[in-house]
Amino acid sequence: xxxxxxxxxxxxxxxxxxxxxxxxxxxxxxxxxxxxxxxxxxxxxxxxxxxxxxxxxxxxxxxxxxxxxxxxxxxxxxxxxxxxxxxxxxxxxxxxxxxxxxxxxxxxxxxxxxxxxxxxxxxxxxxxxxxxxxxxxxxxxxxxxxxxxxxxxxxxxxxxxxxxxxxxxxxxxxxxxxxxxxxxxxxxxxxxxxxxxxxxxxxxxxxxxxxxxxxxxxxxxxxxxxxxxxxxxxxxxxxxxxxxxxxxxxxxxxxxxxxxxxxxxxxxxxxxxxxxxxxxxxxx
Length: 284
Prior knowledge:
Blueprint: H1 3-21, H2 27-32, E1 38-45, E2 49-50, H3 54-64, E3 69-72, E4 79-80, E5 85-92, H4 93-123, E6 130-132, H5 142-151, E7 165-167, H6 169-175, H7 178-188, E8 195-199, H8 202-211, E9 215-219, H9 223-233, E10 238-242, E11 260-262, H10 265-268, E12 275-282
Helix pairs in contact: 1-3, 3-4, 4-5, 6-7, 7-8, 8-9
């Protein structure tokens, strides 16, 4: 996520998050700090993991006051340890207090996703299978969660419904079958778009490969079925497996030769990384 992306896409969501938390005033902060006073606070990691979301963390504070300064000791993608000092945030104490929870919510969530993704990626070391995320993201958090997956070493599947053709079970039912769905997509979609289709049975795999699908998603298949599907496809299409893939069971598919594995767990089930702002002090 660069500065342009932040201003064009992320800023509006960060502002909404701040407005959600401060709809009129921060009563607690204004009670103890009615006037401007400069201070600083430490950003401290409370468990081991991969840090992600530092630009978002910083942007929360600079939206509230562009004079806020953040001295980062790490960068996105770094391994961090329990007790490690990650940054020092300095500026108007009212801003530090009012922005704390929103900034930490982003950083903890994104770092948790990056950490979990990194764990799963390591389980695929030594294979040619690439780990991808899905659209199973928190509403209005997709740009942040998919960024965190990339920081953790994973790849992004399509960003949204405008980003690519993926024909799932209900699309196939609506079209009248696998071949009909693929033919309809070929007629409608721009030629630069690849066509991916979901297959739940070996018969669907055969039909999809014969109809010229670019990518065939092997949905909720057993490892034995996946191996048979890869043999049948025989390089005519890229292969992707999906369906309840987690760090606990991903080893079941590593030897099959699947091109991609997509896992909703990267974004919907990753626990947060525990990070805190501590030791606030007034700077005279």
